[in-house]
Amino acid sequence: MKIQKLTERLSHLTDPRRTRYGNIRHKLEDIIVIGLCTVICGGEDFADMEEFGREREEFLRKFLELPNGIPDSDTFRRLFEKIHPKELSECLVNWLEEELPDRCVIAIDGKTICGSADKTHKAYHVVSAFVAENQITLGEITVDEKSNEITAVPELLDLLYFENAIITADSMSCQKNIVQKIVKGEGDYCIALKGNQPCLYEDTKDFFAEFSEESEQTKTSEKGHGRIEKRKYFLTTDIDWLEQRSEWENLNAIGMVWSKVTEGEKEREYVRYYITSLTDIHEFAYAVRKHWSVENQLHWCLDVIFREDAARARKNNSPLNMNVLRKTALSLLNKARYGRLSKKRMMFKASLNPEVLLSVLLSLKK
């Protein structure tokens, strides 16, 4: 049973409690599984974990030992403040046993947990690697602020296996060492280009201003949510003229995306530039579009569905461990797809019916 695999994996985590004194009343794996179930059902804090556990104790005993019943909220709080977020994340990602689709897009981007700041530290900024196709978070790195993403992304890439995948990132990650890491891992890249690489940016901008119509092109159009968005993608592999080409490993092309968004009577136009190892215009367009999944399908869900920015966990590792639980819950909800219900409705239904919760934990499609 998949849940038994989870409890087995969790039992090998480093227990931050003083276990050598022999006064541990609740098992580490029991506490984490109850916490995960609570988040799946829409719970937001440690008091919710205690309340959920007491209401669903009979159900939980089907796969948890619970030698001394349900832990109280302080026990949940103390554990999640101390357990190592990276270790917990790796354990849960491995438990999900999600195979990467061939030639998938892995979008790398950061999000600040706004409510995690307190008197001792700034709000945590978490850089995530998100697989666009199956909507799973492969890994994350925590930094003090957004500007530190430059050093965090190489560390995050060291944790990932991404052979034959396409790595996408915003302009802050347009760094030569990051590109080298991606190429060394046998992946491709498509990275936004802005003023932090001024010479490369200006040369690319000037080229497309003069020769965009001579470049390979493709178009897309989308309508929904009261808006129409039209996009034109331009890609050229004829970059022998580019002086900086040799400085960027496996730089095969530069690209531009023009988009126009119409909402009612208002129109907005955007132009974005990219460096990439891709040479196919359709693959380039796909990668650019899929990068936004990390915003729309991860960060938006964390804020709107799980109310992460309003979360009150602030001390030590608790905001980061709660972030890991939310991402895991989101991955399970995406995989389960209980009918045509929205994620929010699935969470509500899981809180009412233990069998629905079980189907989410087992990733069963209804």
How would you describe the overall organization of this protein?
This protein is an alpha+beta fold. The chain has a domain at 2-95 and 316-361. 42% of the residues lie in helices and 20% in strands. It contains 14 helices and 9 strands. The protein has a 9-stranded mixed beta sheet with strand order 3-2-1-4-5-9-8-7-6, sandwiched between helices. Helix 2 crosses helix 3.
Low-confidence stretches: none
Largest sheet composition: 9 strands, mixed
Q: Work out the helicity level.
A: 40-55%
Please tell me what the overall shape is.
elongated
H and E order: HHHHHHEEEHEHEHEEEEHHHHH
Given the helix and strand composition, which structural class is it? alpha+beta
What percent of residues are in strands? Answer: 15-25%
Provide a count of the helices.
14
Work out the number of β strands. Answer: 9
> What would the average pLDDT be, to the nearest integer?
90
Q: How would you describe this structure in keywords?
A:
single chain, nine-stranded mixed beta sheet, 14 helices, 20% strand
Which secondary structure elements does this structure contain, and how are they paired or packed?
Blueprint (H helix, E strand, L loop, with lengths): L1 H9 L17 H13 L5 H10 L1 H4 L12 H10 L2 H12 L8 E8 L12 E7 L4 E8 L5 H11 L6 E4 L6 H9 L3 E6 L4 H14 L4 E9 L2 E10 L16 E11 L2 E11 L4 H11 L1 H12 L13 H19 L6 H10 L1 H8 L5
Parallel strand pairs: 1-4, 4-5
Antiparallel strand pairs: 1-2, 2-3, 5-9, 6-7, 7-8, 8-9
Helix pairs in contact: 1-2, 1-6, 2-3, 2-5, 2-12, 3-5, 5-12, 6-12, 7-8, 13-14
